[in-house]
Amino acid sequence: MQKEKKRICPECKGIIKSGRTEMVYELENMKITIKNVTANICGKCGQSFVSGRVAEEVNRMVNRVSEDINSFVKTQPEVSRGHRKVAIAV
Ligand SMILES: [Zn+2]
Question: Is this model's pTM higher than 0.85 or not?
């Protein structure tokens, strides 16, 4: 992919530092929050930037988890109604 860019926020020109963020996925029948995702965060405006590689990993994990949850729910009809929230820390 791309080489490491200068760590300057494109929004506000603030300094971007390494940190952690949350990624939220709204799926058809559930909401998955991934916590502790490695990201670069602007110290000025708080915008977070997740690298393509990390985003890909998280995506893969979300797909796997949502499959697991869906197959679990099939065996647990009483929890199959309504929206579910799932939080995962990485
Ligand atoms: Zn910024």
Answer: no
